[in-house]
Write a structure and sequence with these properties.
single chain; 385 residues; alpha/beta; 4 domains; five-stranded mixed beta sheet; 17 helices; transposase activity
Length: 385
């Protein structure tokens, strides 16, 4: 049985046929016979034309526009019907969004779902063909520890330092794999620029010789200490931090914070270090030529404790580079990443960093050990106490 195919007539032909009836006073039967069409078809054309003239029906252009509007409205409704939880996944990696799109394909077009989730359709189809990745329990533990270590450093560990920290915890991982791991977990190092303010000595104060000469690696603990002062800005005003570092292990052995930058600030930091470590006679303490360190009172304190003063040259920051680097890490990697509204909050945050720095932060100068771990290894080998 052959399928009957209805004949299609162009719009111009229809308009001429209707004009015969309405303008030239042909009857429908006469006009249909002259055009070779049935009177039933012509009657429907005439009836439709009259309704359009009266505004009862839509024109071809209006009907086309209506269909487009309905199609657009349907698309917008489908976009709104996509569950709200899908919007929360826009910040997730593409694999999570692909999995969500897969749950929508039974109700929504894939192209629309991909558009709403801000991924390309081609990438989604490639993901469908890719075999699923099996993540082992060891890999999940690696991910967990990497995130925890990175967060503990306030987003400061680069790929090299993160790889060292993970290897310390027993993971076998290279730096290249750590770079890929950080990219996958979106671990991005952030730093803030710190301010730098310097102090000048009084010309009436004497200056000690430079006994260090940039030799930052003494052979044992409590042989060479270094110190400096830094400015800390809070919402309530300035604070001043003085530190004392044992250059052997890079450990901060003494520190003090005050609202005023006086000689007492550096003296209290040094006395805390001295009472904690009980260094032998002849300890070298290296600093810059700030007025607090060149003062007669501070020089007198070092002499009473049988310690020798050492000072770097004017304008040569590398003469005390290790302590300068510590202050850079303190500010860039820690303090400037969170608001510091009060002096009390700043003091607590500095104390947290001192603990993190001495106990957890790994140093390449210490064979990738923390300062305290490095001193413990020295104690085991040489019996130092």
């Amino acid at each position: 049985m052959t399928k009957r195919i209805s004949k299609q007539y162009p719009d111009d032909f229809k308009q001429e046929a209707v004009a015969l009836v309405l303008e030239q006073n042909y009857t429908i039967v006469q006009a249909a016979a002259s055009l070779g069409i049935t009177d039933k078809i012509l009657y429907s054309w005439v009836s439709k034309h009259k309704k359009q003239a009266q505004g009862d029906t839509l024109s071809v252009d209006e009907r086309t526009e209506l269909m487009l509007l309905r199609k657009e409205n349907k698309r917008l409704l489908m976009e709104r019907e996509i569950p709200k939880k899908g919007q929360c996944l826009l910040c997730e990696r593409n694999e999570v969004r692909y999995s969500f799109i897969k749950t929508l394909v039974s109700k929504y077009p894939i192209s629309l779902a991909c558009k709403v989730m801000q991924v390309s359709s081609s990438a989604y189809y490639v993901w469908l063909k890719r075999p699923g990745e099996l993540i082992t329990a060891d890999t999940l533990e690696l991910f967990r520890r990497a995130k925890a270590l990175f967060k503990a450093s306030r987003n400061s560990l680069g790929s090299r330092e993160l790889a060292k920290a993970l290897r310390k915890e027993g993971f076998s991982i290279t730096r290249y794999r750590t770079i890929k791991l950080m990219a996958r977990l979106k671990l991005v190092v952030t730093q803030r620029l710190a301010y730098k303010v310097t102090t000048k000595r009084k010309h009436s104060d004497s200056v000690a010789d430079n006994l260090l000469n940039m030799n930052f690696n003494p052979v044992g603990p409590n042989q060479v200490w270094a110190g400096d002062v830094s400015y800390l800005k809070t919402g309530e005003g300035w604070l001043y931090l003085a530190v004392v570092m044992d250059l052997y292990s890079r450990r901060i052995v003494g520190w003090h914070i005050s609202k005023r930058m006086t000689r007492g600030l550096v003296e209290k930091a040094f006395l805390k270090a001295y009472n904690l470590r009980k260094p032998p006679k002849g300890l070298v303490f290296h600093s810059d030529r700030g007025s607090q360190y060149t003062s007669k009172g501070y020089r007198r304190l070092l002499k009473q404790l049988d310690c020798r003063a050492s000072m770097g040259d004017v304008g040569a920051c590398w003469d005390n580079a290790v302590v300068e680097r510590f202050f850079g890490s303190l500010k860039h990697d820690w303090l400037l990443k969170v608001p510091q509204p009060t002096r009390h909050h700043m003091c607590d945050d500095v104390a947290k960093y001192m603990k993190y720095y001495n106990v957890e932060r790994l140093h390449s100068a210490n064979a990738d050990q923390s300062p305290i771990d490095f001193e413990i290894s020295f104690r085991k080998v040489f019996g130092w106490s």
